[in-house]
Amino acid sequence: MPKALLTDRRRDSYIVRRDASPVRSVPKEYVHLHEAGSVLVANWSALGGGRYAVTANWPDGGVFAGSVPLLLTQTIRQSTLLIGHAELGVPLAHQTLMEWMDFSVAGDFYDPKNKPDNLFIILTFKPNNPRSLRVELSILSEGRLVAESLLDFSWIAPGAYRRLRGEHAQVAWDAITAPSPVAAHTVGRAHAGEVVLAPTPLPDRWELRTDVSRSALYDHRVDHVPGLALIEAAYQAAHAMTGPGHEPVRVMNTFDRYVEFDAPCWIDAEVVPNPDEDIVRVEVTGTQNGERTFAVTMDCPR
Questions:
Q1: Helix (H) or strand (E) holding 299
Q2: What span, in angstroms and rounded, lies between the C-alpha atoms of 219 and 33?
Q3: Residue 147 and residue 180 in one domain
Q4: At 287, is the secondary structure helix, strand, or coil?
Q5: 198: three-class secondary structure by DSSP
Q6: How would residue 21 be classed by pLDDT, with cut points 50, 70 and 90?
Q7: DSSP calls for 112-159
């Protein structure tokens, strides 16, 4: 991943503190959320040259329950959507897609004692084509670089999206049921309602639980399983493989096709060889109707 100098990032965060207007109330529509209380981002500022800065606040509780993986992926997602709509002219009516997303995070950032009050996010946007952007993103906490991300972000007009989705464009949410979860502690969660994996006869295979009542993952009605829910499934599968105390410091996500609500999605995980002996690499794959839907690779310290 291309890296700007840390001193440049600190300078950028200083510019935001000095020049940004009073905290703006970000419209929840800009980050594609129904509940305003789930919006993490606030101020934003243009830095020039396709670069922007966003501030964010992580709540102690709320729907994300203090989960660093959920808060981190939501911060990346919301920052990108905010700048796309507020500064780059991406129409609010268009469907947006994150085709792939890689990110790394400092290992000590999982420690609750290091919970940030304020975050500064520096984003650089580069066009891939008229409807797609490459985004480089850095997250700072108190001037310290704590996470980085690289992703491709695209959008599609409503009519084209309806044609693409076809019979899957409408989903009867009230008819969606989820199988019983695995034990919460085995996947690093405190409560059964947070678990997105259901058991199968195989120890390294699970069925994805699409529990649409969980607002942290299903804030509003959508016609496919959100990418955030798939990343959460990968986190939980990796935890089941490595055990506690091995939070991922690098995550690489590829989304191949939509995960639908009308058929089981199988989550498979395996530990694969890695040249770095201090890192356990877990590969997680989602399969539906015999086709791969997404793949996530997680590097976890031993």
A1: strand 291-301
A2: 6
A3: no
A4: strand
A5: strand
A6: very low
A7: GGG--S-EEEEEEEEEEETTEEEEEEEEEETTEEEEEEEEEEEEE-HH
What is the 8-class DSSP label of residue 92?
Answer: T
Report the relative pairing of strands 51-56 and 41-48 from DSSP bridges. Answer: antiparallel
2 pLDDT exceeds 50? no
Identify the bridge partners of residue 22 per DSSP, sorted by sequence position. none
Let me know if 200 is exposed, middle or buried by CB neighbors in 10 A (0-12, 13-18, 19+).
middle
Nearest CA-CA partner of 136 in 147, 149, 146: 149
Q: Are 106 and 116 in contact, with CB atoms under 8 Å apart? A: no
Q: How many domains does the chain have?
A: 2
* 231 and 122 inside one domain: no
**What confidence category does residue 5 fall into, taking pLDDT thresholds of 50, 70 and 90?**
very low
The pTM (predicted TM-score) of the whole model is 0.89
Average pLDDT for 133-150: 94
What is the rounded CA–CA span in Å between residue 63 and residue 54? 22
Nearest in space to 114 (alpha carbons), one of 54, 55, 72 = 72
* Whole-number pLDDT of residue 66: 76
Domain C-terminal end among 106, 138, 161 = 161
Q: Do 157 and 13 sit in the same domain of this protein?
A: yes
Find where tokens 């694969």 sit: 272
